[in-house]
């Protein structure tokens, strides 16, 4: 197939990890006989420096015209002045909104060989396989906001606002995805305090009534944060509002062993999606060539699966990542403490994954995925 993929490397480690994911996609194209056309654009701080805006019109137009977008990360200390008029994160939020990407899928499935990397005991990690469906274009991120001075005192507020429609579509998607998995949805809210959460819970119940084959339970976000650590295997699909989902998924990433391992897919009504690792620009390690590229490479696999409907190709990447980990390759973030094994750079990890991809038996993977 022919597909146009826009690359938005962004800031910090973004360009380092996107470079590896692009090379992985190029190997997939060669092995499976596709033609992927890549165009690259600036976003975030890099775009502010070049154009004065976090996402220029031509970059957005290219994303709109593409089949899928692969993004690295935005942000960093150079653009973090609280008084700044323009911020890198506006580029990412604007892109999600402009493309209508209201659902963000964040799967977490710990790899057994990496159990040592997690601060949790291995028995707690047994059977963990969860998917967070995070609402992505509503809530505190997009509600009315004010920062002003009243009677000589500074004041600021953000608004957590949701409509019935915004909640229903993302909760419905969570139920549909649960049907393909273990058939359980946990809706996470703060219904003991927030009006928006009480509406969220009512809608979740109504959507649940239309999906009687899927089990629904509700949890309050504070105790859910605890249960993610004490009983992570009790979750199948989690659905939650934007900010809760942001926070809970960084926490859940630690079940996998590192933030650097976790991919995501942002989807709306059509096939076009935005794919990005859940981590940020990691200013503390940027430029050192040591970032873990796996979250971005697995995001590229999600791109193939969800936007291009290339299931066999997506699985081939996932097999290659699993084989690479099984062979002992480790970037610094997933190296066993005190391990004497040579630690792989970002580029070495990418190259090892591509080597395994080169050995995948294309026909066997295609048959298995059919
Ligand atoms: N999607 C995005 O673009 C995105 C996501 C989160 C944060 N951010 C931005 O990134 C900047 C830094 O935020 P932060 O430091 O709070 O979070 P971060 O995710 O950038 O980093 C948190 C910690 O995880 C480590 N880490 C992250 N990704 C890694 C990887 N691939 N390999 C190895 N280690 C990795 C970092 O070194 C750091 O110690 C901020 O400007 C923030 O707004 C962007
Ligand atoms: C950078 C920031 C706007 C973003 C978010 O909060 O959505 C990030 O933390 C994420 O998880 O993708
Ligand atoms: Mg986040």
From TrEMBL:
Its EC number is 1.1.1.85. NAD(+) binds at residues 76-89, 280-292. Pfam families: Iso_dh (PF00180). Pathway: Amino-acid biosynthesis; L-leucine biosynthesis; L-leucine from 3-methyl-2-oxobutanoate: step 3/4. GO terms for molecular function: 3-isopropylmalate dehydrogenase activity. This is 3-isopropylmalate dehydrogenase. Homodimer. Keywords: Amino-acid biosynthesis, Branched-chain amino acid biosynthesis, Cytoplasm, Leucine biosynthesis, Magnesium, Manganese, Metal-binding, NAD, Oxidoreductase. The gene is leuB. InterPro entries: IsoCit/isopropylmalate_DH_CS, IsoPropMal-DH-like_dom, Isopropylmalate_DH. Its cofactor is Mn(2+); Mg(2+). Mg(2+) binds at residues 222, 246, 250. Residues 4-353 form the Isopropylmalate dehydrogenase-like domain. It is an enzyme of class 1 (oxidoreductase). It is found in: Cytoplasm. Belongs to the isocitrate and isopropylmalate dehydrogenases family. LeuB type 1 subfamily. Binds 1 Mg(2+) or Mn(2+) ion per subunit. Gene3D superfamilies: Isopropylmalate Dehydrogenase. The keyword Oxidoreductase applies. Substrate binds at residues 96, 106, 134, 222. Catalyzes the oxidation of 3-carboxy-2-hydroxy-4-methylpentanoate (3-isopropylmalate) to 3-carboxy-4-methyl-2-oxopentanoate. The product decarboxylates to 4-methyl-2 oxopentanoate. The record marks 141, 190 as: Important for catalysis.
